[in-house]
Amino acid sequence: MKKSILGIWIALLVFACGCDGEGVTPNNDGYDRKTILENVVDNIIVPTYHNFQIELEELELAATIFINSSDQANLMQLRLDWIDAYIAWQHLEMYNIGKAEELFFSQKMNTYPCNVSIIENKIATENYDFLTNTLLNFSTQGFPALDYMLYGIADGDVLSKYQGAEAEGYKVYLSEVINDMISNTDMVVDYWDTERTSFINEDGNTATSSLNMLVNEFIYFYEKGFRANKFGIPAGVWSGTLPGNVEAYYKRDISKELALEAMESVQKFFIGTFFDNSSSGASLYDYLVHLDSKFLADAIVASFENAELSITTLNDSFATQVEDDNIQMLEVYDDIQAAVVKLKTEMLYALNISVDYVDSDGD
Q1: How far, in Å, CA of 330 to CA of 77, rounded?
Q2: Is there a contact between 140 and 118 (Cβ–Cβ < 8 Å)?
């Protein structure tokens, strides 16, 4: 009799928590999460990746032309295509999920600052290993490595390296870096093209459900990849100032542009704006409104808009900004930080989603 009563109570508890035998929790708040997943995948992630592939193809072509004829005009075109691809990348970095996470895609594409001594050693020893997944190896590839290869070598006298006795080594390394970027990107694009349906169908509310993972990656990017890496670390929020740690350090004048592009990608994801800006669809904003949290949704949008406006006041070069007026850089950091609590605490609570990463910032 006692076992029967216990069994009934267990059944009632399982029913009450909405869990099946495998611990899967369906979404019971009346909102169709699949609509957000469909919009984000079909109208934001996939077209953004396909556009990025095109930009990388242009970069590869420019690199091939420059390698075959290393003159100033071809270097300038290669630099322009690098900037275009780097801008396109800003709209992808937050989607470190699925194949991208497996490949350490974001780390391989944009770990900065690059490690100049190791890059130079790799060139000298003809070491083109980009497969080893370590921080030191991440810092020898991707966009930051190209920043050095196109603007930093020989103290800015770049052509001297591509025209001198060591030219072959630098040309091969330049080509290998770009080839690896394309190869990794193609694998991630293939993942989205083939796993689209299964990803969208995982629309429940568990730690491994698609929306939960997307939301966590979104917040992680905003807090770490955006707020900390682009602003907090160079500005010395947790240590002394590190102007050499800004994005695109050697180019010197596009770190603000890259940050503004990343800020735009954050806003577009939150409100569901299509990649091509032609329309918008289901989004986290809509979800919060459905949950009677429109005030919070509007507050998050306002925080993003204020942060964007604040960023526009900075120098085009964040390195120069830190060196000349770091107080302003810290003030911008604070404006960006204002949205973190809203996202990480209030929004996650409203959506009934748990944070899935460890915060070691002490903030």
Answers
A1: 35
A2: yes
Mark the ranges of the chain whose per-residue pLDDT is less than 50. 1-25
Helices (H), the chain: 2-17, 33-40, 46-68, 72-89, 99-103, 105-110, 116-125, 135-138, 142-147, 158-163, 167-201, 210-220, 233-235, 255-271, 284-290, 294-311, 318-341, 348-351
Instruction: Provide the β-strand partners of residue 273.
Output: 280
What's the CATH architecture for 29-351? Up-down Bundle (1.20)
Reduce the secondary structure of 291-319 to three states and give it as a string. CCCHHHHHHHHHHHHHHHHHHCCCCCCHH
Q: How far apart are CA 97 and CA 60, in angstroms?
A: 26
Q: Residue 295 CA to chain centroid, in angstroms?
A: 27
Backbone angles phi, psi at 147, to 5 degrees: -55, -45
What 3-state class would DSSP assign to 85?
Answer: helix
Q: How far apart are CA 228 and CA 240, in angstroms?
A: 14
SS3 273: strand
- pLDDT, tens digit (0-9, with 9 covering 90-100), for 296-352: 999 999 999 999 999 999 999 999 999 999 999 999 999 999 999 999 999 999 999
* pLDDT (0 to 100) of residue 357: 79
pLDDT, tens only, 202-213: 999 999 999 999
Domain boundaries, the chain: 29-351
Residues 6+ positions from 191 with CB-CB distance below 8 Å? 98, 99, 100
Give me the pLDDT at residue 28, please.
77
What is the model's pLDDT at position 356?
85
Q: How many CA within 13 A on the CB side of residue 295? A: 2
Look-up of token digits 């577009």 = 268
